[in-house]
């Protein structure tokens, strides 16, 4: 699998001309919903599905988890048009306003060397993130950490998702771009993640988004996909696999 | 008959839920208001009682209220919406302006300790940017909801409040915007997913909205929207539903559920 390096901003990569955007068609969402519910309705217990996330040493480590949260908060600050000067300090300050105390306390337990390493690490990720996001015009309706919990089959299946950055509003044509930012390198789960975000957004809003992308601040790689039948089918396939349906 | 209507927060099912509303809605007269007040008075209370849909839905007891990015987003986001109606701004710009106004108020000594302005003034730049991000999410979600409407809408100036005469009780209905038409539709936006008692909470909102109206006019429909779940529920402004809402509020008062933390603030 090859990924495009983030030479231009992620939103440049996702942008298409207005003529090529698919018109709004609610039957797409209702068709997807029906198919997934067919598999889920036989379940006795509730299953909660989340975006795939390949386990790796960085995700499992405390430093990796903290770094991921700080990068996530940098995305939120960027969506608010905030021009950070000290990314690690600013991200930590922002995180403190929303995080459970015990998570933030993890940082306080780091020794001086770990803290210096974290600071340098977050600065490097912030450079990549700034280049990838560019400057977002306020008129693009940027939203960050947008949550979804789509309940299907009378509560037997919950599709839970968080979109790091969402740009655009639903309308008569596909016009919403979804961006997931990871501080890990893109792994084999990248295509499924991009597809799952597109599926959840389609089911939640009854509007098919324009594009769905995943950006790695570790490598600068970007995986961007237009949301079409093939991508939504991949998202459905991921949910079907989680349900263990054939 | 009391009916809970189920719809979605987007597309044709959203437009149907807020558009297909009966023109005639009942009004509560002074005698009906007095009868309700008498029932609250009969319950008695030592302290001032504040009740809203949160009290009716019996959400788990929360930690004491504190301002945070999450608890401030509604106040700031709704203020930004009101600004957007009259000024050609983006949502983000409107939220920033609202925050700046609060900071100016605090700097001029108009913010009392514990108020939103006072809290904002004590934050660093990055913390305040996260507050802006949360409020922008809230306001943009409402802009998106209204974007799909066929008819006119207006943000409300405040939540609906009704002080029950002689009962040391204040009732509140949270609301975000009103859709104008032959019959008014009041919309409230909520986070997360609707729980089993969401219908009871909506009826309580409907009852307070009706009681607080200068002429006691019920709205054509009171709609709750849960954008995270893509769902919307509505209760019609029938006398049965208004009465059911009042009963839910009385029951909450009787059981002495903790007051809503947001309302207490």
Structure description:
- The complex is a heterodimer of chains A (246) and B (265).
- Helices cover 46% and strands 18% of the residues of chain A.
- Chain A has 246 residues and is of the alpha/beta class.
- Chain A has 2 domains: 156 residues, no CATH class; 77 residues.
- In chain A, strands 1, 2, 3, 4, 5, 6 and 7 form a 7-stranded mixed beta sheet that branches.
- In chain A, helix 4 crosses helix 5 and helix 8 packs across helix 9.
- The longest helix of chain A has 22 residues.
- Chain B has 265 residues and is an alpha+beta fold.
- Chain B has 2 domains: 169 residues, no CATH class; 72 residues, no CATH class.
- Chain B has a 6-stranded mixed beta sheet. In chain B, strands 2-5-4 form a 3-stranded mixed beta sheet.
- In chain B, helix 8 links the parallel strand 7 and strand 8.
- Chain B is globular, with a radius of gyration of 19 Å.
- The two termini of chain B are 36 Å apart.
- The relative contact order of chain B is 0.23.
- The interface between A and B is large, with 41 and 39 residues.
Features:
heterodimer, A: 246 residues, alpha/beta, 2 domains, seven-stranded mixed sheet, 9 helices, B: 265 residues, alpha+beta, six-stranded mixed sheet, three-stranded mixed sheet
Overall mean pLDDT of chain A stands at 88
Given helix and strand content, the structural type of chain B is alpha+beta
Label the overall shape of chain A.
globular
Number of strands of chain A: 7
Low-confidence stretches of chain B: none
**SS summary, helix count of chain A:** 9
The separation of the N and C termini of chain A measures 26 Å
User: Which geometry of chain B do the CA atoms define?
Assistant: globular
Query: Which H/E pattern describes the elements of chain B?
Result: EHHEHHHHHEEEEEHEEHH
Mean pLDDT of chain B: 90
Q: In what order do the strands lie side by side in the largest sheet of chain B?
A: 1-9-8-7-6-3
**Segments of chain A where pLDDT lies below 50 for 5+ residues?**
none
Radius of gyration of chain A: 18 Å
Number of strands of chain B: 9
Largest interface: A-B, 41 and 39 residues
Query: For the report, how would you describe the main beta sheet of chain A?
Result: 7 strands, mixed
Structural class of chain A: alpha/beta
């Amino acid at each position: 699998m090859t990924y495009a390096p983030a030479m231009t901003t992620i939103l440049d990569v996702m942008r298409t001309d207005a003529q090529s955007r698919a018109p709004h068609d609610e039957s797409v969402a209702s068709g997807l919903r029906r198919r997934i519910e067919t598999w889920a309705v036989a379940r006795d217990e509730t299953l909660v599905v989340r975006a795939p996330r390949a386990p790796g040493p960085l995700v499992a480590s405390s430093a990796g988890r903290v770094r991921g949260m700080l990068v996530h908060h940098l995305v939120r600050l960027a969506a608010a048009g905030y021009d950070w000067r000290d990314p690690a300090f600013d991200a930590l300050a922002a995180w403190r306003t929303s995080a459970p105390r015990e998570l933030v306390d993890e940082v306080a337990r780091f020794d001086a060397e770990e803290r210096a390493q974290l600071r340098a690490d977050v600065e490097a990720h912030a450079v990549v993130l700034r280049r990838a996001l560019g400057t977002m015009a306020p008129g693009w309706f940027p939203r960050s950490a947008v949550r979804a919990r789509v309940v299907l089959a009378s509560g037997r299946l919950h599709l839970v998702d968080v979109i790091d950055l969402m740009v655009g509003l639903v309308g008569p044509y596909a016009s919403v771009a979804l961006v997931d930012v990871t501080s890990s390198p893109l792994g084999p789960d990248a295509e499924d993640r991009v597809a799952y975000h597109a599926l959840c957004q389609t089911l939640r809003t009854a509007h098919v988004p324009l594009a769905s992308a995943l950006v790695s601040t570790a490598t600068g790689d970007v995986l961007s996909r237009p949301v079409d039948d093939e991508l939504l089918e991949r998202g459905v396939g991921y949910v079907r696999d989680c349900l263990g349906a054939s | 008959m009391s009916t809970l209507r189920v719809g979605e927060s987007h597309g044709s099912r959203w437009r149907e839920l807020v558009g297909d509303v009966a023109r005639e809605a009942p009004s509560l007269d002074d005698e009906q208001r007095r009868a309700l007040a008498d029932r609250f008075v009969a319950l008695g209370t030592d302290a001032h009682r504040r009740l809203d849909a949160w009290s009716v839905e019996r959400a788990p007891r929360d930690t004491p209220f504190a301002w945070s990015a999450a608890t401030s987003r509604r106040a700031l986001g709704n203020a930004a919406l009101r600004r957007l109606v009259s000024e050609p701004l983006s949502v983000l710009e409107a939220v920033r302006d609202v925050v700046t106004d609060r900071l100016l108020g605090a700097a001029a000594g108009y913010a009392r300790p514990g108020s939103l302005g006072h809290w904002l003034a004590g934050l660093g730049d990055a913390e305040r940017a996260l507050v802006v991000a949360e409020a922008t999410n809230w306001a943009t979600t409402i802009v998106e909801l209204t974007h799909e409407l066929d008819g006119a809408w207006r943000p409300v100036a405040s939540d609906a409040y009704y002080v029950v005469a002689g009962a040391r009780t204040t009732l509140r209905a949270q609301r975000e915007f009103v859709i104008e038409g032959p019959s008014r539709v009041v919309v409230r936006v909520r986070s997360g997913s609707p729980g089993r008692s969401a219908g009871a909470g909506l009826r309580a909102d409907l009852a307070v909205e009706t009681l607080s109206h200068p002429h006691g006019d019920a709205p054509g429909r009171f709609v709750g929207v849960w954008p995270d779940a893509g769902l919307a529920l509505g209760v019609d402004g029938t006398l049965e539903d208004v009465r059911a809402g009042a009963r839910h509020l009385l029951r909450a008062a009787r059981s002495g559920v903790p007051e809503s933390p947001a309302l207490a603030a």
